[in-house]
Every structure is written in C-alpha cells, then in structure tokens.
Amino acid sequence: MNFEIISPATTKDLLNAVKKQQRRKFRFGAGCTDLLLELKKNPVEDLLIINLSQVKDNEFSGIKRLAKGIRIGARVTAHQLVMSEEIKNRFPVLHESALNLASTQIRQVATVGGNLCTASPSGDIACALMALEAECELLSVSGKKRMIPVRDFFTGVRQTVLKRNELLYGIFVPNPEKQTKKVFSQFIKIGTRKSMECSVVSLAYHIQTDEQGTVTRSGIAIGASAPTIRFAESACDFLDDKNIYEISDTQKKEFAENILSYASPITDMRATAWYRKEVLFNISKAIFDNIEK
C-alpha cells in the first residue's frame, strides 16, 4: 500500500488540512483498525490519510458531562468508554458495546468516530449509540457545527451524510427522562466465536421506566441485520406505557415481530439470512425473561 500521511497538531491545523485537500482523495484515520484492512483489500492510488491521533483537543478526545447529557469526543477510544464509570453506570448498553469490541489491544486505539464513520451494518458502538438516541456533532472546515441524530447518519453500507468538507467531531448522549427511576440497558452480540468477531446479529436496547415499572421511553437498535444499523421505532412505540414486569408471552412475540420488521439481512460467510432472522427474533423475545424487579 502506498499512501501519504499528514498529522495535524491542532483542530485548526486539521480543518485547514481538510480545506486544502478538497480536490484530492483523502481519508481520516485515528486508530486505523478498520481503515488499514479496507485499504489492504481495496488499495487506493494517490491517497492521503489525515492522521487524527496527534490532534491535541480535549473536545475531540475526551468525555464530558453536560447539563443535558454526556458529550463524547469522536476520537475517544473504546477503552476510554470501557473505563468510564459514568458510562458504565448510566449507559450500560454503550459500555457493553465497547467491551465487546474486538480485543483489548484493538480497544486501546479503535475510536467511537471510527466505528460510526466506517458505517458498517455490524458496528457495535454505533448500534448502542443509536439505541441511546444519540446525536452526531459534525464540524465543517469553516468552523460551523451541525447536529444530526445517529439514526439519520447512515445512508447506506459504508456511507454517511458527512460532506467532504466535514468531519465527525463529537457525539451527544441525552440524559434519561426526568421521571425515570430505573433503566434496563444491554448490548447483545451474537457471533460465530466468542472474541475478535464481527456480529452475526446484534441488538441494543435502553429502556427507561418509572418506579412502578411503566415504560417512559425506550430506544432499540439492530445491527448486522440490514444494509445499515436500524432504529426499531415501532418496537419502542409498542412498549410505551406498558409495565415491563408484566409483559405477556403474546406481547413478547409481538414485540419481537416489530423488531424483525426492520430486518432485511443477507446470506454471507458468517450466516444465512434465515438464521439471522431467527436469532434476532429469539433474542428480542428473550429480553423480558432477564428483567427482574
């Protein structure tokens, strides 16, 4: 592989570099865990890699608590998510998605931004962020920012809404609803082996309830089951105002069918489309079997 690498030192340098290279083929890289594999498989001539790992900017590489939620810099690593007690306690689905990502070594360098911008249908962290109804903070070379929900960020397989003059700068995860007293939050990943594996199917959910167990808000996303990660809105609507401790077997099946309506999986070397649908249905139905008062 032959490519050129530049390493901006500040965000200003980074934006200037992006502005200057608009007519050239370039890619962003931080941990490069996905990028190098992609380029090895599909080399690109005269490619410039803009290395983000040297940019000194706490907004870009830190986790910060805000009044209305948590802001995660796009260059935050999976390891940082795993080690954050606040993430673990308040957003277990995000903590678990990071913990399930590849190996300990890869988690040290793989970034949240990379997981999103790769736009893989099996992106673990991206799936969890969609369940959390997070928003992406996009920064243009002019310094202007715009916010877009994660559920609208993906436009196709390995395609996003990012423009050539923009980069993903941060992610905002909103606080739970004020009336929330308990949260049921989990990332379920099914693979052909226990580690270092892309998901065959994944399911992320973050369900908020009041003191009695009545659902006040929920977020559910599925991965590796369609061309993009998908937010299962009708399944969330189905749970509204239901008591999570009193879901009947019939309702469990109806809930799972709602989730399955968002799936359009393919058959590949990891699994058949039929298998993916069966697994997704079963793990969706089983969510409530593990919920205790």
Summarize the structure.
With 293 residues, the chain is of the alpha+beta class. It has 12 helices and 14 strands.
3D architecture notes:
- With 293 residues, the protein is an alpha+beta fold.
- It has 3 domains: 49 residues, no CATH class; 117 residues, Uridine Diphospho-n-acetylenolpyruvylglucosamine Reductase, domain 3 (2-Layer Sandwich), CATH 3.30.465; 109 residues, 2-Layer Sandwich (Enolase-like, domain 1), CATH 3.30.390.50.
- It has a 5-stranded antiparallel beta sheet with strand order 4-5-10-6-7.
- A hairpin with a 2-residue loop joins strand 8 and strand 9.
- It is globular and about 60 Å long.
List keywords for this structure.
26% strand; 3 domains; four-stranded antiparallel beta sheet; 293 residues; Enolase-like, domain 1; five-stranded antiparallel beta sheet; Uridine Diphospho-n-acetylenolpyruvylglucosamine Reductase, domain 3; globular; alpha+beta
